[in-house]
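Troubleshooting entry. Yesterday's outputs looked truncated, so today I'm pasting the complete records for two proteins to confirm everything comes through intact. If either block looks cut off, that's the bug. Protein one:
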Amino acid sequence: MLPWTTRIRQTPASLASRTPVLTLEKKNSMSNSIVKDMIEAGVHFGHRTSLWNPKMAPYIFGRKNQVHILDIRETLRGMLRAKKYLSQVAAGGSLILFVGTKRQAGEAIEKEALRCGMPFVSERWLGGTLTNFRTIRSRLTRLEELEKLRDNDQMDMYSKKMQSSLNREHRKMYRNLNGLRTMNRIPECLVIIDPGKERNAIREAKRLGITTIALIDSDSDPDLVDLPIPGNDDGIRSIELIVRQLADAVREGKGESASEEKDSAPAPAVETMAPAPSTT
């Protein structure tokens, strides 16, 4: 036990659930490296003890200076489960939607979603993004129309007032919809930063039976999501580390899918040359 923490009483069930991770850490030195990176990024820092959600007790190691310390082993366990699932989803060719609209999360969500080729929401969750998908697609069509007007220099045919209105419409739609351009169908899974902040997204996902993965802090309700990853959801470095790991899993899954398609593809037909005509 670290000397500066006060240990929270754990139930036998919660202690037993950690055994697989401890075994994994011994077998895989990479896990130890990830844990070190997590600690350096402050992933283990929770909120003030007065703000905690009692449902988070199994994921809390202790407290320091009235701040909860999250159990980094539980963070690793949750992240590995999420990575395995995301890799399988990506290998199957399904979409994964990254969601994080809080100030600390937006940049990491956009960067990592683009890196792994998945849609994202980093500014504002529009009501009906999932449950009214047809309307969202129609708005994306409108966004593309506005961009064609601009790119083809057709804006000059409108009055200055109309140009100003169209530019304002484009800026607003681009800010809210740009990350959804590649979402041509309902996603299989949502990756979320702070479920308390993204309740509307979670509500729509549950309604459609979409799996949810979330980075959850000590003030969160883990029952809101299917695959919780306990960790600091306010620190920029913490968010960047977790989202980067999840995006890596998506990329790995896509690579597996590509290699499987290559292996299963029929061998190209061998072209046979016709015999040369006789010169005699």
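Protein two, checking that the full record survives here as well:
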Amino acid sequence: MRLRGYTLRRYMYYAMLLASSLFTSALWAKGEAHLLFHMGLGANDKFFVGGTLQNKGDQPVAGGYITILPYQVQCEPSTPIFYSFEPLAPGEKKEFRIPMKSPLMGYRLIGFGAYDNMGFPLPAIDETAKIIQAREPGEHKACQTARKTISTTKNKAGTPKP
């Protein structure tokens, strides 16, 4: 009887050891891309959106993307611009510049993502999202005003109203 109890305890010990090794943090570690800052700039007829990325995870980020939607004076969207970024080591910060094809009146960040070395998605956090969401109602009003102002100006010039 004593031998069976000893063997059972031994099996339980090895089973617990195996289970704990399967759930170590090393197996669940991953990269985490953060968009810390972004801003549109222009000078000498060269326009771009620049900013800073950081991997706040404990594993590398193999790459990722940012998608910008530039817009014109009346908030009319232009063609989206897709920008892919290079690998980020754990803790690494990198600046980026996305060149614009035409003068930049404004833009919206419409996509941000990252992936690991096997192509699986990683967490991608836009740390500016809350600030931008808070500004959104004011931007909607500004766009509506810009469209009404230009529409009124066209109508006064004799252009038929659409």
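Both blocks look complete. Sanity check on protein two: The chain has three helices and eight strands.
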